[in-house]
Amino acid sequence: MLALIIALLLGMPTCASEDSTNCAWIASEQGNGAGASFVDIDGTAYYFGGAR
Length: 52
Fold this sequence. Notes:
3-stranded antiparallel beta sheet
């Protein structure tokens, strides 16, 4: 949820895949629904909760 809030505040789109850049990956809604959410900014991922 925190990743989604940050993405919205920064105006970032959701990631098309886990290796996308400048986007937000919302783990509970994307992929297999498990894992950690993150925001990727210029190739650096900032993780929020869950397993990485």
